[in-house]
Design goal:
By secondary structure, the protein is of the alpha+beta class. The chain is about 40% helix and about 20% strand. The mean pLDDT is about 95. The protein binds one RNA strand through α3 and α4.
RNA sequence: GGAGGGGUGGCAGAGCGGUUGAAUGCGCUUGUCUUGAAAACAAGUAUGUCGGUAACGGCAUCGCAGGUUCGAAUCCUGUCCCCUCCGCCA
């Protein structure tokens, strides 16, 4: 959520920033609602102050209230009730108006309305040759991927990994988690996968994106679409003590997404599915450290790609393509020789204070100082089925077997998936 | 699922209709003392919001939401969470 206070102070700044990402925000309405809000608060406070004064006097003097006082106070009570009722609707309106408004892009985010304006920042060393043998053929032939079984159990866009395929995915997860915790200093978290509505709102996934989320009606819990949601909820409503930031968390969880909107796109294989594993990095930092943290996380994710021997490129998303809660995003895409395309395996974003404001996460810079909003950053490190795809497709040998990256061997116990 | 008990400030823990935003203790901050530290003593120590350049003042908040009352942390209703016992179950 954007700061109401800041919007009211400089409405044009916010209008301009949001127009950059193709939004037409109801700024005027917000300013209007806010001034009505202040008016109502003052009315109610005045009546209440008077009522408190009279009540206190009665208590102090240990006497019964006079009939006049009772009549007058009852009237004041009525007025307060009415004003508060209106205030409640104004606050609801404000909330409803503010919640669907996305974060403002940072100034150095390139202009543009869609992915065509994204900027390739750099491309790593390595081959971008292709061989046309996509994973849905290769992995199926190897007996490590069963798309039909996935469809049979759960429907389209579900898949089953078998044998070395399953083991490879587990090994990749474990390897990535180990690097994040042991080398990059993240604390491993194993969070709940069923999430309360408030927490989903806090991350920015609700109310706007409910169509892409699975939900249990009976308990009103939502399935995590990314561990970001849970990690962002870790400190909601809390004040983080001085000296604690930065907090760095990593979690490996499934991600559940309906992907309604993309029906027809990426239908083959397991590039876009309803349930996938992902290792997610998440940081809470002071605003001062926020820019550097984003670059660090990008480097951390790049390191993983490098060590897997994958060719990758870093793409900076333009203003129209960054996510709802993001102020600036880098994607990392790896080259996959079979499907002959760049696969997005990581998306690294700074959400500035947008999420912290939504879910009431604050920190105290130093003892005695007043609270501030931390910045939150998230990034995949990395997304699994896609990395799995790249490993399989890029590791394909002439004889149909697949050689996996050396760094993973300690986690699998073998280096080759033999052709059957 | 059944039966009880409980949710108060950073923590522990009083208060159960009227100077209670809230005793007391611990913790924390600052000061005095000390070569330094500890101890002792003194002062301070929640969050949000409205007005104000500020000093400061008003209002709200004792899990949450309603209700009763001139007045609610205190009474009533609903709800969520936690604990204990029984049942069930990876």
């Amino acid at each position: 959520m954007l700061s109401l206070e800041q919007i009211v102070r400089d409405p044009e700044k916010f209008r301009v920033a949001l127009v950059r990402r193709g939004e037409d925000p109801p700024i005027d309405r917000i300013v209007e609602l806010d001034s009505r809000r202040k008016e109502l608060i003052q009315q109610a406070d005045t009546d209440r102050a008077n009522r408190n004064k009279v009540s206190k006097a009665i208590g102090d003097e240990k006497r019964k209230p006079t009939p006049e006082e009772i009549t007058e106070m009852r009237a004041a009570g009525e007025r307060i009730k009415n004003v508060e009722a209106e205030l409640a609707t104004v606050l609801d309106d404000l909330q409803e108006t503010l919640l669907p408004i996305p974060n403002t892009p940072m100034e150095d985010v390139p202009d543009g309305v869609d992915e065509d304006s994204n900027v390739v920042v750099r491309i790593s060393e390595g081959s971008t040759d292709g061989h046309g043998n996509a994973h849905w053929d290769v992995a199926t032939d190897l007996g490590i991927l069963d798309l039909e079984a996935g469809a049979s159990i759960s429907g389209a866009r579900f898949y089953v990994l078998k044998g070395k395929g399953a083991r490879l995915q587990r090994a990749l997860s474990a390897w990535m988690l180990d690097i994040q915790t042991e080398e990059h200093g993240y604390t491993e978290i194993d969070p709940p996968l069923l999430i309360r509505q408030e927490t989903m709102i806090g991350s920015g996934n609700l109310p706007k994106f409910k169509d892409n989320l699975y939900r249990d009606e009976e308990t009103d819990l939502w399935l995590v679409p990314t561990a970001e949601v849970a990690l962002n909820g870790l400190h909601q409503g809390q004040i983080i003590d001085p000296g604690v930031l930065p907090l760095k968390y990593v979690a490996q969880t499934p991600s559940f997404r309906k992907e309604h909107t993309s029906a027809g796109r990426d239908v083959r294989g397991i590039k876009r599915v309803h349930q996938f594993e992902k290792v997610e990095m998440f940081r809470y930092v002071t605003p001062e450290d926020s820019d550097a943290a984003l670059e660090e996380m990008l480097t951390e994710a790049e390191t993983l790609c490098e060590r897997l021997g994958l060719t990758y490129r870093v793409v900076q998303l333009c203003a129209g393509d960054i996510g709802f809660q993001s102020a600036k995003t880098y994607d990392i895409e790896v080259w996959s020789a079979g499907s002959e395309e760049w696969l997005e395996v990581s998306s690294i974003s700074t959400c500035t204070d947008f999420q912290a404001r939504r879910n009431g996460t604050r920190y105290r810079p130093e003892v005695g100082a007043s609270t501030k909003l931390p910045h939150t950053l998230n990034g995949s490190g990395l997304a699994l089925p896609r990395i799995w795809i790249a490993v399989i497709e890029n590791g394909l040998q002439e004889d149909g077997s697949v050689v996996i990256p050396e760094v993973i061997v300690p986690y699998t116990g073998w280096s080759t998936i033999e052709a059957v």
